[in-house]
């Protein structure tokens, strides 16, 4: 599994994941919206932590910079 989530994208995902989960935990959202916030937050956190987004892979999106190496 190669990374397809860059540094800026990763930071946004991690922050949004924490915010969505916190909205549910602090009871700002209740019921169905809280469950949706947990779900979205968990996915955002997971894709940020693992630096891989299956949906972006499906659409061919990659925000990781190319790794520089010796050119041949």
Description:
The chain is an all-alpha fold. The chain has one domain. It has three helices and no strands. It is elongated and about 45 Å long. 14% of the residues are buried.
Summary, kept brief:
This protein is mostly helical. It has one domain.
Mind sketching the topology for me?
Layout: H1 7-25, H2 32-50, H3 54-59
Task: Provide tags for this entry.
mainly alpha; single chain; 3 helices; 72 residues
The proportion of residues in beta strands is under 5%
Number of helices, where a helix is a run of at least 4 consecutive DSSP H or I residues:
3
Structural class: mainly alpha
Largest sheet: none
Mean pLDDT: 90
Number of strands: 0
Number of domain modules? 1
Our Rg estimate from Cα atoms comes to: 15 Å
Low-confidence stretches: none
Choose one word for the global shape: elongated
Which range best describes the helical content: under 10%, 10-25%, 25-40%, 40-55%, 55-70% or over 70%?
Answer: 55-70%
| First-last Cα distance | 25 Å
Secondary-structure element series: HHH
């Amino acid at each position: 599994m190669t990374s397809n989530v860059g540094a800026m994208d990763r930071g946004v995902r991690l922050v949004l994941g924490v915010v969505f989960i916190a909205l549910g935990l602090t009871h700002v959202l209740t019921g169905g919206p809280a469950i949706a916030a947990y779900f979205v937050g968990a996915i955002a956190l997971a894709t940020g932590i693992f630096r891989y987004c299956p949906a972006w892979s499906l659409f061919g999106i990659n925000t990781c910079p190319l790794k520089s190496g010796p050119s041949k």
